[in-house]
Amino acid sequence: MSGITLGSLDLAALLCSRVCHDLISPVGAIVNGLEVLEESKDEETKTFALDLIKKSARVGSAKLQFCRIAFGAAGSAGAQIDLGDAESVSRGFIEDEKVKLTWTLPRIFMGKNRVKLLLNMLLIGGQAIPRGGMLTVDPIGEGENMGFRVTAVGLNARVPAVQELLNGGSEGHTVDAHAIQPYYTGLLARECGIKPVIGQEGEAIVFTAQ
Length: 210
Hints:
The protein is an alpha+beta fold. The protein has a single domain (8-209), classed as 2-Layer Sandwich (Heat Shock Protein 90). The chain contains 6 helices and 7 strands. The chain has helices at residues 8-39, 43-70, 83-94, 112-127, 163-166, 180-191; strands spanning 80-82, 99-103, 109-111, 133-140, 147-154, 196-201, 204-209. The strands form 2 sheets. Strands 2-4-5-7-6 form a 5-stranded mixed β-sheet, covered by helices on one side. A two-stranded antiparallel sheet has the order 1-3. It is globular. It starts with 7 loop residues before the first helix and ends with a strand.
């Protein structure tokens, strides 16, 4: 396995690019809706534009709240995060007409890096079901040292090619704004002393960190 040597500035820049990628669509839709409002005199079109702006603002807000925990500092060093808050931002980010989330974790406070790891695991789990389906989050163990199991089930579910990036390797990968997220997930796992493993169990894609 060829290891990745990535400086802190490159890591920060690539994570920022990833966040921008998530936000550009709803922000662009808001801009388009405002332009339609300014130019249109038709009430039906104005109503459509307002609905688009409201929906896009909600989506943008949900993505920001999720990214703040998944990629941001989310408090000072050693801070803990309520898993109930993690569930709320995860539902806002992930759930839509195609993807549903089942969350069985207890509502406890947990070290921020473990919570960040969980949210990043959910992102990778979502990649396993590009046509939609169900993501299920279960605990492994209990208490502050709890691990996680993310199960993805959906039509044509597939294992994302991220295991080497999770392990800190780069063979066959360009470490760009797309690859940085699974690489960062691996960094979080190692920081927590956890081994991340993703694979297929029957028709389900299972991602564990324990």
